[in-house]
Write a structure and sequence with these properties.
This protein is mainly alpha-helical and about 250 residues long. It has a domain at about 35-120. The chain is about 50% helix and about 5% strand. The chain contains nine helices and three strands, in the order αααααβββαααα. The protein has helices at about 35-70, 80-95, 105-120, 125-135, 140-145, 180-190, 195-210, 215-220, 230-240, and strands spanning about 155, 160, 170-175. A three-stranded antiparallel beta sheet has the order 1-3-2. It is globular, with a radius of gyration of 19 Å.
Length: about 250
């Protein structure tokens, strides 16, 4: 059989390396001439970071699909591939080492299929809309002081920045060394947290089933991300419509 160990993702982020799938400039906003310059800068600065995070996940997904194909053909996986699958399951599902790779072919396919629901990218336009809301277009205290673009909470002391509205000290807004870390963590949050399952289900439709993918429809599935409920979904739709150019590729 094909030995996939040397295909395992080993890529790391290099801020000095141009690695984007597509580059954008001011011409991106020709159809939206009224967008403030600060918003344009925010979008152009964040696109390559989201591209990078997406590409990291897509490398994992590509290998998952190759492994799925091998299992479908009835071939046995070698130990490095099984170990990688186990680590991926821990990363995206929080399962510990007691959850072994099953022996039966159909169970193996289900095991990988469940991972494929999680190991997928985020539409760049959607991520931009959320970042704009959560960071106030990069002007929030959490973004300026802690590179927090997506308002993700954490619950251990000194894990981030104290939120003034949290009177009981139950959470902080997670902080990061740089913006790329923030985007990486956002993608992992979407792909791993139980409360994002409805979104992940709809993302499968958006990328792999719907003949006409709809970001507003995807926005309506992200319940649980924000405490303001349905208003949050309306905010995403509004940001997408008014500010985020439509000619940005998904990855």
């Amino acid at each position: 059989m094909t030995f996939l160990f040397f295909l395992l993702p080993t890529h790391t982020y290099n801020p000095d390396k141009v690695e984007h799938t597509l580059s954008y400039n001011e011409s991106l906003f020709l159809d939206k001439p009224t967008i403030p310059e600060t918003h344009k800068d925010f979008i152009l600065d964040l696109i390559p970071l989201i591209q990078h995070s997406n590409q990291e996940v897509l490398m994992e997904r590509e290998l998952l699909l190759k492994i799925y194909s091998l299992v479908s053909e009835g071939k046995n996986l070698k130990q490095p591939e099984r170990q990688w699958l186990k680590k991926l399951k821990i990363k995206y599902e929080g399962k510990n080492n007691t959850h072994l790779f099953p022996k039966e072919k159909e169970s193996q396919l289900k095991y990988i299929d469940k991972l494929l629901e999680r190991v997928d990218m985020i539409p760049i336009r959607f991520a931009l809309a959320q970042a704009a809301i959560e960071s106030g277009w990069g002007t929030s205290r959490f973004c300026i002081e802690g590179n927090s673009y997506f308002g993700i909470h954490c619950y251990t002391p000194d894990c981030g920045i104290k939120a003034s509205e949290d009177k009981d000290g139950e959470f902080e807004v997670k902080s990061y060394s740089n913006a790329q870390e923030s985007v990486n963590d956002y993608l992992l949050f979407i792909n791993s947290k139980r409360g994002m399952q409805r979104f992940r289900n709809e993302r499968v439709n958006y990328f792999h089933r719907d003949s006409i993918p709809s970001l507003p429809k995807l926005a309506r599935s992200i319940k649980g991300y924000s405490a303001i409920g349905q208003s949050y979904q309306f905010m995403i739709e509004s940001i997408l419509r008014i500010y985020i150019p439509e000619n940005i590729a998904n990855n």
